[in-house]
Amino acid sequence: MKAKMHLAFDLSWTHLQGRWRLPGSWTGRTYPDLGMFKEIAAIAERGCIDMLFFGDSTGIPSTWRGSIDAAVRWGIDFPRQDMSGYIAALAQDTKHIGFGLTYSSTFMHPFYVARLLNSLDHLTNGRIAFNVVTSTRRADAANYGFDELMEHNSRYERMEEFVDVCKALWASVDADAFVWDRESGEVIPDPTKVRAINHRGDFFKVKGPLSCVPSPQGRPVLIQAGGSPRGIKASAHFADHIFASSRPGPLKAKHRRELDGELTAAGRDPSQVGILWGVIVILGETEEEALRRRETLLTAMPFEAAGAFISGGAGYDFSTLPARFKLRELNEEIAATQASPVGIVHKMATEVGFETEITREEFYERAMKAAIGYDHTIAGTASQVADYLEEEFEASGSRGGFMIGHPPSTPKDILNVTDFLVPELQRRGRFRTSYEGETLAQNLLAA
Asked: Which of 180-197 are b and which e, b meaning 16 or more Cβ less than 10 Å from the residue's Cβ?
């Protein structure tokens, strides 16, 4: 029997970077209209999609030319709401689909996050995932009192301790502790089922226990997206599923091998940890139609907006680039500031060579396409896109699936996945025809 893949919709940037105005997007309705998200949730659940995923950032990009003006003007990583309240509302209109919520372990406190996610897991009847991020954007850091980014490896050390504290808190009250005896009036007859965690670490001091009723899943599904060697090691430490960026097939296989090695070293079973690969898809009734629609991506935002986007993500003002430079040297300069060493410049270098010298204009041309996702958008018929997903799924170990990211036009591209791609994958035995479990964890583990 063929291994089945899992599918999620990444809605992190659905309304950002000019997507909100492309053909096929809503007219007369704008973010953060709850009705838009309700419609997305209904479409996705009809297609048996595993999860709606919400990435996040809390600052307005200000690196490009030292100002937030371009980001504000063109809607670059701005605006964004805290999606916890939206998830609580969407859960009331759905029964099966899961919800991924993002918080930063660099800026947040584990007790607060553990308590919030416990409540959301109750409200969703066990359909919450926690996307744990370290945050590499200076605009975010400035809002939490940081003058500079925390050192790269230290961010991951803090992340690991953060999750360890959360897991200890979620386990600090036994699942069968609450009895609610109406005759005696006892809530928990055996107080030993509630325990302090007395955590003292390098970053946190937390007494505990968590003052909550254990949630349906016990704890949320844990997702992590580190792609650097240190990030992959952190993934192996705690993640149930990995969110990995789009990359060529051989690099997917390499990531899978490296993750499996770290999982084995950590005493975990690699077969139980899936990778959800980021992918952008545009479906058409014909290949020509899909390719034509992909070209419209290049009209989504002007050069200034793309500059604000890539500069904010890298923490480097790309408006100051010299006339010619080597990608390796630029990436090293960016990494030295504690930004991610595997960001946009690293990805570009893996494609054209780290020692390649390029001009400022060549870089801008490539960066423009990367900013809107043009360079890694898969466009074609449902059959052609299914061929691609199957090939990549098998080449990367047939464990996990795909995070269908940042639909270029919402709701058109979400409808197309549900109505055309999903039935094609079902016909091939690659995707479920109904939800197998009652919780998100159960559905993500189902083969």
From this structure: eeeeeeeebeeeebbeeb
pLDDT tens by residue, 135-151: 888 999 999 999 989 99
Q: 107: which residues sit within 8 A by CB, 6+ positions away?
A: 58, 135, 140, 141, 143, 144, 146
Angle, helices 360-372/303-314, rounded to nearest 10 degrees: 90
Q: Where are the domains of the chain?
A: 6-298+376-445
Query: Could you tell me which residues come within 8 angstroms of residue 446 by beta carbon, excluding any fewer than 6 positions away?
Result: 4, 432, 436, 437
Q: Which pTM was predicted?
A: 0.94
* For the chain, the helix, strand and coil percentages under 3-state DSSP, each to the nearest 5: 45, 15, 40
DSSP bridge partners of 357: 326
The fold for domain 6-298+376-445 equals: TIM Barrel (3.20.20)
Q: What is the pLDDT of residues 338-391, one digit of tens each?
A: 888 888 898 888 888 999 899 999 999 888 888 888 988 999 999 999 999 999
Alpha-helix residue ranges (DSSP H) falling in 47-109: 69-74, 84-93
DSSP reduced 3-state for 280: strand
